[in-house]
Amino acid sequence: MTMLSRVANRIYWMARYLERAENTARLINVNTHLLLDLPKRVRLGWEPILDITSRRDYFYDLYEEADERSVIRFMVSDTRNPDSILSSLNLARENTRTIRDIIPREAWEQVNSLHLNTKSNARSVMTQRHRYDYLRSVILGVQTISGMLAGTMTHDEGYDFLRMGRNLERADMTTRIIDVRSASLLPDMPEDLTPFENLQWVSVLKSLTAYQMYRREMRQRIRRADVLKFLLQQENFPRSFYHALCQVDDCLNNLPRNEKVLQILTKLQKKLLQAKLQEFDQQKLHDFIDALQLGVIKINDSISKNYF
Amino acid sequence: MTIRWGSYKVKNLYDELLRASGRPRPAAQALCSYLRSLKDVEIEEYKVAAESAIHVMGITFTVYSEEEGSIDRVWPFDIIPRIIDKKEWLTVEAGLKQRVQALNLFIDDLYHEQRIVKDGIFPAELLEDSKNFRPECVGVNPPLGIWAHVCGSDLVRDKDGVFYVLEDNLRVPSGVSYMLENRQVMKRLFSEMFEQYAILPVDDYPSQLYDTLAALSPRQGDQPEIVVLTPGIYNSAYFEHAYLAQQMGAELVEGSDLIVDKNNIVYMRTIEGLTRVDVIYRRIDDLFLDPEVFNPESMLGVPGLMRAWKSGKVALANAPGAGVADDKVVYAFVPEIIKYYLDQDAILPNVPTYKCIDKQDRQYVVDHIHEMVVKPANESGGYGMLIGPQASKDEREKFVRLIRRDPRNYVAQPMLILSTAPTLIDNHVEPRHLDLRPFILSGEQTNVTTGGLTRVALRKGSTVVNSSQGGGSKDTWIVDMEAT
Fold it and tell me: Are the Cβ atoms of B271 and A2 closer than 8 angstroms?
């Protein structure tokens, strides 16, 4: 059966918004923990979170100060912020609602109840004691939906659009986390890390649940170049940028009329793999990451133009 | 408490299952004794099972509220079925076929020579101010000459036990999905009864609908591309649109999924590019269909759809303009319409209807307003009506003024006493009023659903059966007593 462009579009965005909610929850969780570990004088506070999501200006339109309470409210429950967890889940729900006849019923119910629970428990995220559980329930909720879809939805074109949405969102968030975390480190000391900078790289890995996998894979202490290589160029780690691109590549190969999108994708893959990350200083890394993000946007636009 | 029929009173009206003596009608005997044999707990179990089945199957209708956005409500369902003997039903079925056949001839005539007007049977002035007559449709020849492919006619029984036609819905009648789903629920719950009775099946509706639509395809010979056009998730009947699309294996589309090119071909946008569409089962009202021709503000429709339809490149069901015959003033003329086109007497009677445009009738209505039901010609869903016996003096006077100001827009009928059927209300069985909406498909053949959707007014004494206003539904069993 043919797939309507509108339906493909909504599946794609459903997946993107779900992934965005999960990533935001991860980000806040890790920042909370990082702040507890750093001594007061080097604390970076909550502003980097705003930079990661490119919402700094918008935040200051609504709030006076980037203190913990305000940033967390802004990122979790403030529906004026289109990227907040609640906004993302709401949009995920609205997209899912319109394709209820395509998505397995249990998955729709799970999306619906995740949105409801996240909304009604939103206050508990404001206290540190309950925050972890709250954010964890968001992460688990999204993972449950992914699992249900993997296990119950026909792996047809619709499922390819779902995977593409998820992976592009993931790729985008991975670059954002790297960009902001690395930019806030002391510049030009790539080989001589202070213990605190070390902690920051650990936090980068942890935001992406990559710490344990990094250790297994790289078998060495945390080093900037290796972390970058792992998170950007590793093929098997599911949250690495390259892995996400390969997933999209795989999906595109199942779809009709894929030539143009594939061209753009292949170009980006090449650029990524050829980069000598260990030689990049802070500025160069930042520029490179900018280029990767632009690449993701180009792929997104090309998918939209081609299929929706 | 178990069900005790002794406390169930049938007085001055017709009950679907019980006679005035309190004894079951022949076709209901087995059901009534089965229900009597059930213990409290069992009835409760049935109720819970029915509710959970409905929940799991996702049988819902949509209500829009400012606060929560749009919400899906579960459609209230009563587990006690309504039973009609097949012998009686065959007459009703013949009557419906006759009626819809005549209405289709009437519509086709109105958009061509208008013989019925020239012959003085149907007043020209009624046609002139008809809200649902579409000048844009004049001279169009839809395939097979049929305009109303799907009709839902509402039947009620008065206290004499006779079925009357209350109205015909020729635009986008809904409810058939609930009829189909109710049967699924009942089969799960009352499988024993299905063994005891010869209950005629209802499930061939989706394939009949498919065949009806496929026969309209402009590209005969090829596998036609059929789509269901919905206004979207906020429409109260969205569940049904999705359901029918799924059951027919057709694509469920919104207006923005379709485009019409300059050669008047309709396409849908798919991930493979544009795919040609042959038949559109549209569930959008005429005036929203095509912003090029009708409401230019419409976001629901498809620009160019009317020219595609007129040039025969795509089929629309129901055809635009079909609604001209479901206006309540036209209704009053249906017996004459049947006589005129088919030279037959109507098998199914109309409810006696006073046409306020007629001077004598109008006077009668004004004099007897306290015992009349007054209906505006073009509203549906029970809105804008006056129920004389229940209305206040002010409301009655307001309607007298409305009638005098715009007599063409009103008809009136004597208040009927709708039949009742036993309905489970908080573990008691109480009589509740109901109606019946069968669906008639017209194409190369005419098919009538076996029974139809029985709607129940769940509020005590109420006769409003609409789902948006406290109505529920029951399964309708047409039973072949000669086969049991």
Answer: yes
Contact B412, B362 (CB under 8 A): no
Kindly give the parts of chain A with pLDDT less than 50.
Answer: 185-190
Total structural domains within chain A: 2
Q: Which of B342, B369, B393 is the last residue of a domain?
A: B342
Tell me the whole-structure pTM to 2 decimals.
0.83
pLDDT for B249 equals 87
Using a CB–CB cut-off of 8 Å, the residues of B that contact A are 58, 232-233, 242, 245-246, 249, 251-254, 256-257, 268-273, 275
Q: Give a yes or no: residue B142 inside a domain.
A: yes
**Residue in chain A lying closest to B245 (CA):** A101
Chain B residues inside the 8 Å CB shell of A90: none
Domain boundary among B316, B342, B368: B342
Whether residue B96 is found in the same domain as residue B127: yes
Q: Is the CB of A100 less than 8 angstroms away from the CB of B242?
A: yes
In this complex, which of A3, A98, A100 lies closest to B271 when CB atoms are compared?
A: A3
**Statement: residue B316 has pLDDT above 90:** yes
Given B233, B273, B275, which is nearest A98 (Cβ)? B233
Q: What pLDDT does A189 receive? A: 46
* pLDDT tens digits, B190-201: 898 999 999 999
